[in-house]
């Protein structure tokens, strides 16, 4: 398969768009991109290197994938349905946020919950975040099923002195839920969890926790392809927090949250194809990270110089700058970060190698990521798309290792 791009591909996109009677802005809105991005694609300036973006464009034009890009083979309907089916280990956690989680408390006297010892609950929330960072989603879901309603009850029934702490724990739990849901492509559930995290943090008078909830909300919007909402949420939060983060005395936690928001905004710009704006946000995050230093994990954000470079790799891949992504990756030592973050870095390296048609290196990176955190790679939608793209490119020449990986991530074609 040749990489979609150039004037011939752009002309085909423009022709199909006009057949549907769409303006560039209308097509852009339907696929979560910008009118300028569509214009650049049609002029042959912006390449479309990723198979998932190619599929998104085909959906927006209401055509089959092989009409937009004839070289792409299509699977049979049953095979396509099976390939599209996403395994999800968070079903129990999703049920925990369905409806009101503490209705029994509303109907009776609000006596203090005997199961609400804060020291035990704190240990359970710490374990939830450890499972999230490790990408162990099945165990995470099992832990969250009973924990969420328990914390919701305690946050309403605890004594005045303990209620704020209970609400902080509740906010941290919902933040973990939002993070996990995004990684499992459950963006609607991530939106709900992030919104509840914001509410709980505000009720606990944890101002920074509110901003962290907004950070999680931005990622949910990105996954939903609501890039305008993601940009609005990120910019609003940055504009509000930046003056405080610059005042003396400097609170390192504020810097960590601010830097993370800059990285989230960089992702939004990268998804929109705004190369200059994405790189500007990465540069701002780098400046903040120099002040924070490595070895911190404020609000479970893992923000620091290394994490900024990991995000710079991801942004470069999103923009189709595979060479730049690999150059940055060669300088990054991820050994001090969580398993989930290390696996994400390896997955992005695999994406970059795929863009350069370096199939062996791409497969090696994906297998290394799977070894670090099997659940993340086997259930991450981006990993599934990369493996599917490798299978399409390899065709009948696909190696046994690639075929086996495709089976494990549900990406057979």
UniProtKB/TrEMBL annotation:
- List the SUPFAM superfamilies: lambda repressor-like DNA-binding domains (SSF47413), TPR-like (SSF48452)
Q: Which SMART domains match?
A: HTH_XRE (SM00530)
MF terms in GO: DNA binding
Kindly list any coiled-coil regions of this protein: none
Looking up Pfam families in the UniProt record yields: HTH_31
Boundaries of every HTH cro/C1-type domain copy: 13-68
PROSITE patterns cross-referenced by the UniProt entry = HTH_CROC1
**Which InterPro entries does its entry note?**
Cro/C1-type_HTH (IPR001387), Lambda_DNA-bd_dom_sf (IPR010982), TPR-like_helical_dom_sf (IPR011990)
- Give the protein's recorded name: Transcriptional regulator
